[in-house]
Amino acid sequence: MPIPSFAGLELLDTPVLICDAAASLRFVNPACENLLALGSREMLRHSLLELFQPSSALQQALSTALQQGASYIEHDLELKPQHNDAVLHVALSITPIDMDAEGSLALIELRPLDQQLKIANEERLLLQHQANRELIRNLAHEIKNPLGGIRGAAQLLEHELSDRPELKEYTAVITEEALRLQALVDRLLAPHRSHSRGPINIHEVLERVRSIALAQHPQGLAVIRDYDTSLPLLSADKEQLIQVVLNIVNNAVQALRGQGRIVLRTRVARQTTLARKRHQLALKLQIIDNGPGVPDDIRDHIFYPLVTGRAEGTGLGLTLAQAFVHQHGGSIEFESRPGQTCFTVLLPLLTETTN
Predict the structure, then answer these.
(1) 33 partner at 20 to 30 Å CA-CA among 122, 207, 299, 323?
(2) What is the pLDDT at residue 352?
(3) Could you say which EC number(s) this protein's record lists (predicted)?
(4) Rounded distance, CA 74 to CA 91, Å?
């Protein structure tokens, strides 16, 4: 049971802990339980310093605050909980409080910076996407008109060469390459065309993509389902979402060279900010592979058009995926290291409300 004099701290959204001079924990509030993904009973069995991997900065902050009897603040501190692999970026504040019966205690506030960084990064990606979209649209229109002229001229030239069949090979190359570029332009313009939306089950989308991937690579590729089947429907364009997932999965398959494991995972995300709006419920879709990871030289601009790590790639798959996700009011991001790459797509669910 929490100490009665600390009861009001349970209502705070800020994660709060209280410990004594020996770092033994006396109180943790529910917000702290959520932050560390650990129950209060389990946390109270440990000292403050035992909750995290050794951190000289945390130890010094606690010692300094209690010795000097004044608040100590760290604006950006990295903490690694002992019980999982998460890395927390927090603003730390330690304030001494005097308790007649308890002696000197320390009130510790941990304000997570990850959400602020995530929102700022989402804003940056949104602006980047808008700039990319305008650039692509203008470029595609500029390319599209001359292509029609090139193809038409090649066809006229082919008729003129009726008595020179050996030269028709060259006009055929011109026509075929013009058609290939036309298809590329159509793909560039695809995100700007209107599409119909309706209530869909995300797992139908994932099963479709899974079938395609396994049909193309029946040997050596494992596509594992990790679904939350209780998820409600979402309002979306089914074909666009199939394209989003298929583009990401195709990238994973190519990185794995058809030999490896891909996990399709669905979960619910609560109280999520997407496209500057707060959503009570959102779909969290993760596509995880055990490939070599995203090359360092393209990590910062992987969603840019025509950026690819493969000589035969077009560099449009993730650009189109990002465009479609943003059109649905969602976000897409990734984390990658050798042995694991995880793309996370967040989309508003149909049953939630925004404020």
Answers:
(1) 122
(2) 45
(3) 2.7.13.3
(4) 6
- Tokens coding 56: 């000289």
- What's the sign of the alpha-carbon dihedral 161, 163, 167, 170? positive
Which amino acid, 79? L
β-pair type (221-226, 260-274): parallel
pLDDT tens digits for 234-251?
989 888 899 899 999 999
Q: Residue with structure tokens 């996407």?
A: 129
pTM for this structure? 0.56
Per-residue pLDDT at 355 exceeds 50: no
Biggest CA–CA distance in the chain, Å, is 108
Q: Distance of CA 120 to CAs 19, 123, 126, 223, 328, Å?
A: 33, 5, 10, 33, 19
Q: How far is CA 123 from CA 13, 116, 273, 276, in A?
A: 24, 11, 11, 8
HEC-encoded secondary structure of 138-164: HHHHHHHHHHHHHHHHHHHHHHHCCCC
Smallest CA-to-CA distance from 128 within 302, 345, 350, 349 is with: 302
pLDDT, tens digit (0-9, with 9 covering 90-100), for 276-290: 777 888 999 999 999
The CATH superfamily assigned to 195-355 is Histidine kinase-like ATPase, C-terminal domain (3.30.565.10)
